[in-house]
Amino acid sequence: MPAVLLTAPEAEPIGLGDAKAYLRLEHDAEDDLVAGLIAAAARQVENITRRVLIAQRWRLDARLPCDASGIALRPRPVREVEAVRIMLPDGSFETLDPADWRFDWGAERLYVTKPAPAGRGIQVDLAVGYGDPEDVPESLRLAVRRLVADGFERRGAGDGAPADVTALLAPYRDFSL
User: Which segment of the chain is annotated as a signal peptide (predicted)?
Assistant: First the structure.
């Protein structure tokens, strides 16, 4: 199920000043390095947890399932289902009325209630992410800080996230059987 970013996040989960304070860094000589580490750390947290941190908009292309399992919406967390479109036989898309679908907030799955053949293409526009930087859970923000500090100290020499970061991210990880 390919997903396309429609609107990128406008900020990172922590700012440059926050990261520099955490690093106890008072000079500006390495601001570019720290800014790069913030972006890299945020992407690492997003990749590990399979969640986006800051508000953004995505379009998910999928196929209607042949059973009643619904469509798992990714990326997560879903803040709003903005539009659901179903592919017509001629290849064009029809926007479904909200009465023709329902979203299960707990499972983050979309169910199309309008009769349609299995395998039919569907597009879903989503608002995802926790919101603004201050809306991101503090444990995820701390994981970003720790990864920034680890990257700053090691300067790229190391493999994987430190154990304390892995522990911070564990409650947010997606596991499937």
Answer: none
